[in-house]
Amino acid sequence: MTMETGGPLDDGGIAVVPDPLALFQEWMKQAEASEPSDANAMALATADADGVPNVRMVLLKGADATGFVFYSNAQSIKGGELAANPRAALNFHWKSLRKAVRVQGLIAQVSDAEADAYFATRPKDSQIGAWASPQSRVMEGRFVFEKALAEYALKFALTKVPRPPHWTGWRLSPSRIEFWRDRPFRLHDRLVYARDTAADPWRTERLFP
Question: 0.85 exceeded by the pTM?
Fold first, then answer.
């Protein structure tokens, strides 16, 4: 059965396929071809130990059968919330496609080897910024940040920049993925994949718009 809308569909909506990650990757390819910038941008929703929610935009850096991966400063607000409450939700919205994907699941930190490998691919200025910025903390003035940038730029001028110990990545292992497609008169398509654990098969269900 085709994954793409417009082909043979089971009920006129988004086609059901065995693996929702394959459908997600197909939609991501479409977004990369049509979105004007940052097709991999996603809203990351977290909550602290008391359940107080928080949300911000981050960039997806990997998606496969093991989950959705992103990177940041573990000492940031998001890092603290992920440590205190290792559950999160993601939302992708591609306006050019009139499609969206929502994901919920458990969070786990990536391995040091994975974090090292991705950090090595970043531009050197971004690597230096990861050392210079105590993310989410109060900044006394822009000059403080610029001074730190200059100091780390000098320190690593002639060497590779190692990954800071506080900079890492997280993987969201999905337990629920909802695919949404805009339809006329707000009669949208909503297809949900859900499972209880990563070892369980996916179940699918349609939702009213």
Answer: yes
Q: How does pLDDT run across 149-201, given as a tens digit for each residue?
A: 999 999 999 999 999 999 999 999 999 999 999 999 999 999 999 999 999 99
Q: What is the pLDDT of residues 112-142, one digit of tens each?
A: 999 999 999 999 999 999 999 999 999 889 9
The Cα 54–Cα 70 span in angstroms is: 16
How many other β-carbons are positioned within 10 Å of the β-carbon of residue 172? Answer: 26
Domain ranges in the chain with CATH number 2.30.110.10: 1-119+166-209
Whether residue 163 lies in the annotated active site: no
What burial class does residue 138 get, using C-beta atoms within 10 Å of its C-beta: 0-12 exposed, 13-18 middle, 19+ buried? exposed
Is 1-119+166-209 a domain of CATH 1.10.730.10?
no
The strand pairing partners of 109, in sequence order, are: 170
- pLDDT of 173 reads 98
Q: Which of 56, 176, 186, 206 is catalytic?
A: 186
Q: Name residues whose C-beta falls within 8 Å of residue 80's C-beta, 6 or more positions apart in sequence.
A: 48
